[in-house]
Amino acid sequence: MSDLGEFLKSRRARLQPADVGLRDYGGRRRVPGLRREELAQLAGVSVAYYIRLEQGGADNVSAEILDAVSRALRLDPDEHAHLHRLAHPRRRPRPAGPPRLRAPLQHLLDSITHAPAYIVGHHTNVVAWNRLTAAVFVDLAAVPPGERTWSHQIHLNDDYRARLGDNWATVARRNVAYLRFRSGQDPDDRDLAALVAELRERSPRFGRMWAAHHVGELTHGEARIDHPDVGRLVLPFETLHLPGDPDLSRLMLYAAEPGSPSEQALHELAATSRHLSSADLAS
Length: 283
Prior knowledge:
- With 283 residues, this protein is α+β, with helices and mostly antiparallel strands.
- It has two domains: 3-87, Orthogonal Bundle (434 Repressor (Amino-terminal Domain)); 103-282, Beta-Lactamase, CATH 3.30.450.180.
- Helix content is 47%, strand content 11%.
- The chain has 14 helices and five strands.
- It has a five-stranded antiparallel beta sheet with strand order 2-1-5-4-3.
- The radius of gyration is 22 Å and the shape is elongated.
- InterPro entries: Cro/C1-type_HTH, Lambda_DNA-bd_dom_sf, MLTR_LBD.
C-alpha cells in the first residue's frame, strides 16, 4: 500500500461511527474504525472513487475532494497539509554534499552562553551547537557523526532517554511525527529514508510509532530534562527557520523562565561545564 493509502487507513482506524454522527448498527467490524463506505459517504464521493484514492490512485484528485476527505477524517492542520502533499508530492532539488554552515551562524550560537541553541538539518541532524546544548542534552562531540541526529539520541541512546525521564514518550512521538511531516514535504530525501529504515530496524518502539502515522510540524514547545548535576530543567523552546540556507532546517533556541530554578541551573552549567561546541570540535 502507498504512503497515501496507509495514512488514510490509519486515520479511518481512529474514528468510530458515533464520532462522526453515523449510526452504528452493531455487529463485529473486520477492521477498526470507519469502513471505507462510511468515509466515502461522509466525504460525498463514490465508494469506488475513495477505494481508488486509498489504493494510491490520486494522480488527478482535486484539492476540493482532498479537503472533503480531510474534513470527514477530522484531520488537524498538519495532517491536512500532509494529505495534500502525499496526494500531490513535490519534487525538490537535491543539495550536493553535506549541509553548509555559514560562519555567522556559528558565531551566533557561540554568543548564546546561558541557554542551549543549535541548528539542525532536514532530518534532525545536528549541524552546529553551542556548549550548553552539549551540557544540557547530549555530549554531541562524543557522538559518532553518523549518529549525530536527535532521532538517534531519542530512540537509541539509553542515557538520553533516562535524562528525558517521564517526558520521553512525548518527545519520541513528537520526533516521529516530525519525521513523517518531513517525509511528506520531500519524498525524495534519501538521507531521511535511510534514517527511518535504520531506526525501524534498531528500535521496535520507533517502528510502532512510525506505523501509527502521526504527523506534526515542530514549531515550539517545552523541554523537560532530569539533569544528573543540576536536577530538573524546564526549558521552553522556539524554532526559527532559515530561509536563506536551504541546506538547513531551523535554529532551535531554549530559554528558562527568568528567575526560575532552571535559569539558575543553566548559569551554573555555563560556569562549570567543559563540554565542547561544534566550533570547538572544528578548531
